[in-house]
């Protein structure tokens, strides 16, 4: 039980199993008037489980509802870690509630596998935050976070945020999600309208909507191709052009690229903003690199060809270059495509 000012620094949590109603590999919950800092912590091979109704599990912090200040920085949750719950689970933080609950997380990587135990009681599941109270939006900031694991559930499912719940008034002063990368694999029912790479669902559209989403989420790169769903759950009706899709590097796509595949397994992507391609960077000495390098790896590259490898898939991207006026356009063909 954490009281007063608490700090966890330089720890490794390895090969542990945690089973509880509020379960985490690092911190279960915060308390009122408790300042908490978690930094330089690595979670490796942990099994975090909360099996009963109305329970929460997470890789680093399960529940933050105390109105206190929390800082999480320079932490990693590895791909051998599994976080599962009957109700709420997330790779980093499970549940954030209360307008006075402050949380700033910076430089976090999670490869965790987040899983739903029982669909009957399932609420929200995500790679970053399972359930985020709308009343806490003004005091929560996630910066330089990479979510590269998997989320398997049929409730509200998000690569970054599962559900934004309740009523709140976002003031637009600070982005909730800034300069993050999400190439998480989303595994859910194809008819699930509450599944998205960025946000699965929003309970009250007055809190987060198409009008303020570009302030809520800034400078963020996602992959809908590997996510298998759009940027936002279709139930949210959120539209935006500011989020950059690695599968459509011009930043316009919020619909899964897999939906554009032909029967021959080919798709075309036009890059019209070279050399500032969103989702990839180019260095004259080393060539192309992916911003989700640990998940979507550039195995080899030349000026006109990339070889990408993702988990069990190998994808060839062939770039054919030509000039039209001052614009360089590159159609990118993907083959072979192996259906998951």
Supply database-style keywords.
six-stranded parallel sheet, mainly beta, 2% helix, single chain, 38 strands, twelve-stranded parallel sheet, 340 residues, 2 helices
Describe the protein's architecture and organization.
The strands form 6 sheets. Strands 1, 2, 6, 7, 11, 15, 19, 23, 24, 28, 29 and 30 form a 12-stranded parallel beta sheet that branches. A 6-stranded parallel beta sheet has the order 3-8-12-16-20-25, with no helix packed on it. The radius of gyration is 20 Å and the shape is globular. It is mainly beta. It has 2 helices and 38 strands. 48% of the residues are buried.
Question: How are the SSEs placed, and which strands pair?
Answer:
Blueprint: E1 5-9, E2 12-14, E3 17-19, E4 22-24, E5 27-29, E6 35-39, E7 42-44, E8 47-50, E9 56-58, E10 61-64, E11 69-77, E12 82-85, E13 88-90, E14 93-96, E15 102-110, E16 113-116, E17 124-126, E18 129-133, E19 140-147, E20 150-152, E21 156-158, E22 161-165, E23 177-178, E24 181-182, E25 185-187, E26 195-196, E27 199-202, H1 213-216, E28 217-218, E29 221-222, H2 224-227, E30 244-245, E31 268-271, E32 280-283, E33 287-290, E34 297-302, E35 305-310, E36 313-319, E37 322-324, E38 327-335
Parallel strand pairs: 1-6, 2-7, 3-8, 4-9, 5-10, 6-11, 7-11, 8-12, 9-13, 10-14, 11-15, 12-16, 13-17, 14-18, 15-19, 16-20, 17-21, 18-22, 19-23, 19-24, 20-25, 21-26, 22-27, 23-28, 24-29, 29-30
Antiparallel strand pairs: 31-38, 32-33, 34-35, 35-36, 36-38, 37-38
């Amino acid at each position: 039980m954490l009281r007063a000012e608490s700090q966890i620094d330089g720890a490794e949590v390895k090969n542990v199993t945690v089973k509880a109603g509020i379960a985490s590999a690092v911190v279960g919950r915060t308390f009122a008037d408790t300042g908490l800092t978690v930094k330089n912590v690595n979670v490796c091979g942990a099994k975090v489980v909360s099996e009963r109704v109305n329970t929460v599990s997470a890789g680093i912090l399960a529940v933050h509802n105390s109105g206190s200040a929390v800082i999480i920085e320079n932490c990693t949750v590895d791909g051998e870690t599994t976080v599962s719950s009957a109700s709420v689970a997330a790779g980093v933080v499970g549940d954030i509630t209360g307008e006075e609950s402050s949380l700033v997380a910076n430089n976090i990587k999670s490869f965790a596998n987040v899983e739903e135990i029982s669909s009957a009681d399932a609420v929200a599941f995500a790679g970053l935050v399972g359930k985020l109270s709308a009343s806490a939006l003004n005091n929560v900031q996630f910066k330089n976070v990479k979510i590269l694991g998997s989320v398997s559930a049929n409730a509200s499912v998000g690569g970054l945020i599962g559900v934004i719940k309740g009523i709140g008034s976002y003031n637009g002063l600070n982005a909730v999600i800034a300069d993050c990368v999400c190439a998480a694999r989303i595994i859910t029912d194809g008819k699930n309208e509450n599944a998205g790479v960025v946000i699965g669902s929003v309970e009250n559209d007055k809190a987060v909507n198409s009008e303020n989403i570009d302030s809520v989420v800034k400078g963020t790169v996602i992959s809908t191709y590997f996510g298998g769903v759009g940027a936002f759950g279709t139930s949210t009706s959120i539209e935006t052009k500011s989020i950059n899709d690695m599968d459509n590097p011009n930043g316009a796509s919020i619909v899964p690229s897999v939906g554009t595949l032909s029967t021959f397994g080919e798709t075309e992507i036009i890059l019209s903003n070279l050399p500032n391609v969103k989702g990839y960077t180019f260095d004259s000495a080393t060539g192309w690199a992916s911003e989700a390098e640990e998940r979507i790896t550039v195995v080899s590259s030349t000026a006109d060809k990339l070889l990408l490898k993702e988990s069990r898939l190998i994808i060839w991207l062939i770039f054919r270059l030509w000039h039209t006026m001052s614009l360089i356009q590159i159609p990118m063909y993907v083959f072979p495509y192996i259906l998951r």
